[in-house]
Amino acid sequence: MSDLLGWIANGFAQGSMIFLIASGLTLIFGVMRVLTFAHGGFFMLGAYLAHQLAGGAVLSGPKFWAVIVCGALGVGVVGIAAEVVLFRRLYALPQLYSLLATYALLLLLQGVATLIWGVGTVSLSVSTRVTHSVSVAGASISLYSISLAVIGIAVALMLSLLVYRTSFGTSLRATAADRQMASVLGINVKFVFSVTFVLGVLLAGLGGGLAAQVYAITPDLAVAQLIQAFAVVVIGGLGSVWGAYVAAIALSTLDAYLVTQYQHLATFSFFAAMAFILLLRPQGLFGRREAGA
Amino acid sequence: MSKVYEMLPESVTRRSATVRLRGPRTRSWVWRIVTVIVVGYLLLVVPGERGATVFLIANTAILALFALSTNLLVGHAGIVCFGEAVFYGLGSYAASLISQHMALDALPLLAAAAATGAAAALAVGFITVRIYGMSLAMLTLAIGQICFLYFSTTGSVGGENGLVTLGPSHAAGIDITSQRHLYEFVAVMVVIAAAALYWVYRSPFGLILRVMREDHVRLRYLGINPAAVKVLAFTISGAIAGFAGGLSTFANQIVTPEVFNWTNSGSPVLMSALGGFDSFVGPIFGAGIYSWLTDHLTGGTIDPNLVLGAILIVVVLAVPTGVVRVGERVRNLLAGYRRSHRARRDHA
Prior knowledge:
The complex is a heterodimer of chains A (about 290) and B (about 350).
Chain A: H1 2-32, H2 38-54, H3 61-90, H4 95-117, H5 128-131, E1 133-136, E2 139-142, H6 143-165, H7 167-177, H8 179-184, H9 189-211, H10 221-236, H11 241-261, H12 268-280
Antiparallel strand pairs in A: 1-2
Helix pairs in contact in A: 1-6, 1-9, 1-10, 1-11, 2-3, 2-4, 2-9, 2-10, 3-9, 6-7, 7-9, 10-11, 10-12, 11-12
Chain B: H1 4-7, H2 17-22, H3 29-45, H4 51-76, H5 84-101, H6 106-127, H7 133-153, E1 163-164, E2 170-171, E3 174-175, H8 179-202, H9 204-214, H10 216-221, H11 226-252, E4 254-255, H12 262-275, H13 282-297, H14 304-318, H15 326-347
Antiparallel strand pairs in B: 1-4, 2-3
């Protein structure tokens, strides 16, 4: 029982970080029809910025959260620049080209990170008050895992409120459904694109900041989490925020279980599940089949 | 309409469908001379160079072959596969494993590598037969990651350290233990395989591939089954990728699970984009640029990824037809500019 609780806690913690990348991916896919490779780069940048802002000090609780938020905002600024310089030009291009451009941007971001911080590992240290463990029903669960789980569910809730309960959300769904028609109806499609992209980047930056304390920060961090986020997005159904959330939590919990019990099977589960779902249900668990696709 | 055909529409080339489908407009003498020079350089000049140069050029040639095989799927058939490294890697491992257990000649080893790549590609093509576009890209990426994890955690294939092999000592009975002879063997094999791919490109089947990229519904109207074309395209591409993988085992004498890393599936697509998806020779140029850049920048202060990323962005935005057609693109732009200039003048 306590083991199970531990797996679930780890699953929620890891899953929330993956979800923060995946939510942006799935939103951007909704409007742009492209899974952007660059998202992993923004995630990595979030981790590096948090490290940079901390300046090597061991952070206390409030400072830590301030650093994370500032790091995410910094990534958001980079995201705005990327949108203005690059992404704006991609919306009209064929999918393969926008896919490649996002891949190029990922390489570019990794290159910049290598240039500034080197290929070695950097880290972010936090006072133990943020990470200490509490005992819940016999299981020892880190307070940080609980924070991550709360952030994950809060982001999922806020995104679904944004998409389904605001006028911007209506514009977003209209744009996702039919770009041209939405534009004819007076929706500023370009604005919707820009906001969605920057929002997604902001979330990835937040995820990166939160991961800075858990993972070793290297330029490769961009890729490790990205591929899992791709899997989650595809399994949940492209464009579905809740699908991504459920898939992220479920797979991460399964992964946390496999890591302790059958270590050689860990992370296989993500890709095996992705292949399996794509073959049986190409639109994903919560996705809607597109007309004629 | 299925989404595949949005992936590479005609805007890529801005040329009429006939020209786009027919392939090279003429058997231009310029290209013939370039081919002769390149092949002559590879076979006659390079073997006399320094060891490191020969090694680099051998690997570039193998990379170019890998990119050509990828472009058959991605550029010509419009099948966006992000798992080409699977076929390449399995070919590498097959050549390595077999040569560890049997002292075989290089040619049967390469045949085994190609057969392994082809078999894997046949399987992948078969199970993904009804999956297109972004989903296919993601599915092939997942298959690549599964291979990566399997090979890096399985002790019997060397685990994370991979396999080290001395490689075959003979090819068709000729000794290839010296670096020079090994290089010559690799170069000849790359040229033969590239010629085979060119033959596919020029054949009616190559034309069918390009028709499928443009419009698979019309292909069906013509009485051709797109599913069969897709599976066959996968198989041919996988065979050549496996062949290239086998050659890389000989040239490097080591194969590690890194070969399955998704960046190794991404880079041949990147090379094809740099050179030009639409042309046959594009990937060769792309591989040359890629290899030259990574060689010159690795170990320096600037990460090669930075430069590659920047170049790729410029290519995608400014010359989507790739460097092979830069001249044509510039001419088009100039003509367009002149036309609008004249129109404005006449208007005034």
